[in-house]
Amino acid sequence: MDDTDGIRTGSTGSTRRSFMGSAAAIAATAAAASTLGSGQAAAAPTTAPKTGGATRTVAVLGGGVAGLTAAHELAERGFQVTVYEKKALGLGGKARSMDVPDSARGGRKPLPGEHGFRFIPGWYRNLPDTLRRIPFPGNADGCHDNLVSSSEELFVRIGHEDLRIPMHSVTAPPAVLTPDELRRALTGFFDAFGNIPATELAYFVERMLVWFTSCEKRRIDQWERTPWWDFIRGAQMSPNYQRLLAIGITRNIVATKAEVASTRTVANCLEAFLLNVLGRGSEGEPDRVLNAPTNEAWIDPWVTYLRSLGVTFRTGWAVRDLRLAGGRIDGAVVEDATGARQTVTADHFVSAMPVEHARTTWNAQVRAADPRLARCDALRTDWMTGIQFYLTEPTPVVHGHINHIDSPWAVTSIGQAQFWAGRDFRADYGDGSVADCFSADVSEWDKPGILYGKTAKQCTPEEVAREVWAQMKAGLNDTGRTVLRDSTLHSWFLDPAVRTGGPRPENDEQLLIHPVGTWFDRPEARTAIPNLFLCGDYVATDIDLATMEGANASARLAVNALLDEVGSRAERCAVTSLYRAPELELFRKNDELRLALGLRNALDFG
Description:
Blueprint: H1 23-34, E1 50-51, E2 54-55, E3 57-61, H2 65-75, E4 80-85, E5 97-99, E6 112-114, H3 127-132, E7 147-149, E8 152-156, E9 163-166, H4 179-191, H5 198-212, H6 216-221, H7 228-231, H8 239-254, H9 263-277, E10 288-290, H10 294-308, E11 312-315, E12 318-325, E13 328-335, E14 341-344, E15 348-351, H11 355-358, H12 364-369, E16 381-382, E17 385-391, E18 401-404, E19 411-415, H13 425-428, E20 436-442, H14 461-476, E21 489-494, E22 498-499, E23 506-507, E24 511-512, E25 532-534, H15 548-566, H16 585-596
Parallel strand pairs: 3-4, 3-15, 4-11, 8-18, 15-25
Antiparallel strand pairs: 1-2, 5-6, 7-10, 8-9, 12-13, 13-14, 16-24, 17-20, 17-21, 18-19, 19-20, 22-23
Helix pairs in contact: 1-10, 2-15, 4-5, 8-9
């Protein structure tokens, strides 16, 4: 059978999302919301903040992770919150799962689709706290108990031996992280990648030590302006070094492009990941996923809990403009699905939309009131979008994520059903014949593929599906063993936010990217307009990466700024910074002095 045979046309049209289970299941979740299970963090006092006897109202503009987090923190502190989300079924934003249209039969749920697979590493420290505070029937730690760990990752090479990398914290980490101990630990970890010349591996480890011992000012002033590719001398190294260390790790852990991303962005998260592997600064294993489709395991219970706190949701309402009067936002112009517009009012406004949408609502008056907002025009987004392949046989290639290193479209994937414990895929989803969901992310949309010689943006949705399938097979099926078989491919589902194949391809849900210097264009959560606050993964946090963790942390910062503005006595949201090894603090202090003297980091030999 030809490589492109066996693919049935999937749908990329409108989707619809059903709340989890029956009305009884929803009622059970709402009941659980009234009494937090043991082990869950206690909610902040819910005494309503008032002005002249009236409860303060907040309009949260955007229903993704940032918006839902802001609504969560505000509602638990007694604010009257309304969330406005432009997509009728868009609560959860890029993190949500969605129903594949017309895929359910025999009383089963529709096949689960998504923008892209979830990855919740153990170095996240703010999002896990929120997950614990979302009640879930039968779980002592709420939705956090729906996280499960993978045990390994697979780096797939075409014509080369594939690499399986254990993905768990080391059982006996160094007691003290001196540079020498750290050097030994990192060399041992990266040596598992194999076939990298010893001198190049040693150089990469030394560059990581330079980062670990760099002071914060050098990280911002020097490394933010240095491409990761240049920092690790990618252009001068062997192909294996380039594909595995420079590109492969960057794609898996940071989900960005090594050639253009700033060293600060990449190394910041790589440091957190490596410390996680070494058992430092983590609250779980390095690679975790959910034990069910995202909406079932997280988003739907979250929305149910927020409704129980009094949060109102207006979905299908797109924010078009913010009105300024007397130096404050006095209304947001919203448009419903019919195109009718109205102005909604509130005491305070939290803009929680992705930057490419948020900045279109900042008119000339708003920008004049806070000139810093104009710098957000320099922030860039790119396409990183998911496609799911539904298989008629279980296909557990590896117990974790797969990086298709040599795929022209920078594909990463994961077999999901193996992690959905307690669920019988055939019995629960689709038409009864689907046994697995192979979820893939496509990160490169502007390079030619291997089937049609066209970029992903130039391909029709059907061609995108065939091309991604072929690229995955090219790496997985080149060892003499057929891992992915055309005969087992039932159907596919491409994120409906993507429209390809025409003269003007579009993607309504893009990903913030981090070229050098863009940190300086990222705004703070507090604006110069007293009742306007920003959150989203583009807002400045120490995570410095477009992630659910960054969105969550920024929402906490926005809520804290709002509480400060109104003089609230409510407890402030905890915002936990990335872990830094305390043993290296003296080295960072020394580097601060060296930087002031115009000297390199003490371990930086070029």
